UniProtKB/TrEMBL annotation, chain A:
<keyword id="KW-0812">Transmembrane</keyword>
<keyword id="KW-0472">Membrane</keyword>
<feature type="transmembrane region" description="Helical">
    <location>
        <begin position="60"/>
        <end position="80"/>
    </location>
</feature>
<feature type="transmembrane region" description="Helical">
    <location>
        <begin position="110"/>
        <end position="129"/>
    </location>
</feature>
<protein>
    <submittedName>
        <fullName>Succinate dehydrogenase cytochrome b subunit</fullName>
    </submittedName>
</protein>
<feature type="transmembrane region" description="Helical">
    <location>
        <begin position="160"/>
        <end position="182"/>
    </location>
</feature>
<feature type="transmembrane region" description="Helical">
    <location>
        <begin position="203"/>
        <end position="224"/>
    </location>
</feature>
<dbReference type="InterPro" id="IPR011138">
    <property type="entry name" value="Cytochrome_b-558"/>
</dbReference>
<feature type="transmembrane region" description="Helical">
    <location>
        <begin position="16"/>
        <end position="40"/>
    </location>
</feature>
<dbReference type="InterPro" id="IPR034804">
    <property type="entry name" value="SQR/QFR_C/D"/>
</dbReference>
<keyword id="KW-1133">Transmembrane helix</keyword>
Length: 226, 260
């Protein structure tokens, strides 16, 4: 192995990859949320459908889509490698443990929370991304131009109570994943300082709760008001 | 006993102790009653009482690590009721007193659990993995010659304090024991920070962190999830800041060292 592969296959190196991809995925959440806020617009989905058409066909977005997929893949791959290593580091577990005395629940269950998010992601992509990107939606005419009606798919999906429940539960899991992950990512990069760390921790908490609440509000809004 | 509390009543306890013959024989928790334990005893003295009982009965005494019994050597270990060095914060097992337990309590005592810390016998584990990490880079090169003057190299007080705080690590392994991943990051970070902060440690700075982290991985310790359990259970209060410094040292070394 050369120095580069040695670096990124070390435990610290893999965590650096987890950290950078994790923060990148956080930035994706912001973009995704801002776009989806158009679902709250009372225009029969016109703005949202035009926006989703743009997202499906714009060259820069298509390029970023590849980066995003790579971000997910590296994050998930290194999570699996590290989790397997961490399990192997303690082959015989303690008969009695009181971890609640020294650490938070979310910090100890990032793998479990991540798995819930992954299952959600597969369901979510299958229902919305795959038909929007590869076809399978009904058409709709907005100002004499034909668009695919992703808004209709959103409305139909979020009128099913268990589908809404999956979304809300997944957003709770995502919130806990981010509450630990956001500030942890900065620590993993060695970025801590008396002046800035309290802000990073506070902002991370705020970010996690607000972003996940806003995402969870979408299915709830459609279920109760549309 | 000098300084003992005359009102303290002796306690009867039930111990569940990990017994294991040797490295290759599977072990199990064995239950022992211990009667008349003084609240003024240290946890290790309580185990001494148990062992005297066992010897009188002709049974094998429980093997456990201990040396100075003053909280400074790092030899004592023990995972007590689900916590490294027991329920009190900032203390080693030898400095844990039985007054923190109650009459009638059941206390579970297990060895440190980590693939890198194989059990020798009962509660004694082999912690030489930490020695090997230290040998990989936890030193400085000093040329022989005349003794330098103590104040020849100016070191700011704040830096000296940070280095000293890191240097208080007693290498007990509680960080590894408490971590859900059995990670040795707090230990390695204390050793790396201590030397990286001081002028004397600058010579081997980059190679040190690279080699010590590589050895840490070779020994089979887990990765760090930033749960903070290690620092919370550390008997001498090594701070998580050291782990972040270790990462900065690691990133800087990997990016700029001549080791390819």
């Amino acid at each position: 192995m050369n120095w580069f592969t040695k670096t990124f296959s070390s435990t610290i190196g893999r965590k650096i990859v987890m950290s950078i991809t994790g923060l990148f995925l956080c930035s994706f959440l912001v973009v995704h949320l801002l776009g989806n806020l158009q679902l709250f617009k009372d225009d029969g989905g016109a703005a949202f459908n035009i926006y989703s058409d743009f997202m499906a066909h714009n060259g820069i977005i298509r390029f970023m889509e590849i980066i995003l997929v790579l971000g997910f893949l590296f994050h998930i791959y290194d999570a699996i490698v590290l989790t397997r290593r961490n399990k192997a580091a303690r082959p015989i577990d303690y008969a009695e443990q009181r971890p609640q005395e020294n650490s938070t629940w979310s910090s100890r269950n990032m793998g479990l929370l991540g798995t819930v998010i992954l299952v959600f992601l597969i369901i979510h992509l299958w229902n919305f991304f795959v038909p929007a990107r590869f076809g399978g939606l009904e058409g709709v005419v907005i100002e004499d131009v034909e668009y695919e009606n992703l808004y209709l798919r959103v409305m139909e999906s979020f009128n099913v109570w268990w589908y809404v429940a999956i979304y809300v539960i997944s957003m709770v899991a995502l919130a806990y994943h981010l509450i630990h992950g956001f500030q942890s990512a900065f620590q993993t990069l060695g970025l801590d300082h008396k002046k800035y760390t309290p802000f990073i921790q506070g902002f991370g908490y705020f970010f996690s709760v607000v972003v996940c609440l806003a995402f969870a509000a979408i299915p709830l809004y459609f279920f109760f008001f549309k | 006993m000098a300084g003992s509390n005359p009102n303290a009543k002796p306690m009867d306890l039930t111990l569940k102790v990990w017994r294991q013959k040797d490295r290759n024989t599977p072990g199990q928790l064995v239950t022992y009653p211990v009667k008349g334990v003084s609240p003024d005893m240290s946890f290790l003295e309580m185990l001494d009482v148990l062992n005297e009982d066992l010897l009188l009965k002709g049974e094998e005494p429980v093997a456990f690590d201990h040396d100075c019994r003053e909280g400074i050597c790092g030899m004592c270990s023990l995972f007590i009721n689900g916590r490294a060095h027991g329920p009190e914060r900032g203390t080693t097992t030898c400095q844990l007193h039985m007054r923190h337990f109650n009459h009638g309590d059941t206390i579970t005592i297990e060895p440190w659990r980590a693939a890198a810390f194989p059990v020798h016998k009962d509660l004694v584990v082999d912690r030489s993995a930490l020695d090997r990490i230290q040998q990989a880079g936890g030193y400085i090169s000093v040329n022989t010659g005349g003794v330098p003057d103590a104040n020849e190299i100016p070191i700011p007080k704040t830096i000296a304090d940070k280095a000293f705080d890191a240097a208080t690590c007693i290498q007990c392994g509680a960080c590894v024991a408490a971590c859900k991943n059995a990670s040795a990051m707090l230990f390695v970070s204390a050793k790396v920070s201590q030397l990286a902060l001081l002028p004397q440690g600058k010579t081997e700075r980059k190679t040190r962190v690279e080699n010590m982290v590589a050895q840490m991985d070779i020994e089979g310790f887990g990765a760090c999830t930033n749960t903070g359990a290690c620092a919370a259970e550390c008997p001498v209060g090594i701070s998580l800041e050291n782990i972040n410094m270790l990462r900065r040292e690691f990133i800087a070394a990997k990016a700029t060292s001549e080791n390819v």
